[in-house]
Amino acid sequence: MSKQSDPEDYDLREEYDLTTMTVVPKGRYAPDRRTGKNVVLLAEDVADAFPTDEAVNEALRLVMRISEVRAKYAP
Length: 75
Hints:
Elements: H1 31-34, H2 44-49, H3 53-73
């Protein structure tokens, strides 16, 4: 593949058939990113304490179990 002669020339070549090309969503609109996935940013001290996603999930499961026990015995 040869280098583009003029970097300011952004025109498509005539041989491209745009009717056969598909539009692929990127970023927050990508379907595989949005379905069933949440992205959460942790504070630095929390990220140090829970270095993997499994560690975070296990800690959150423990919190959920504690809240169930508290709800069971609450007056």
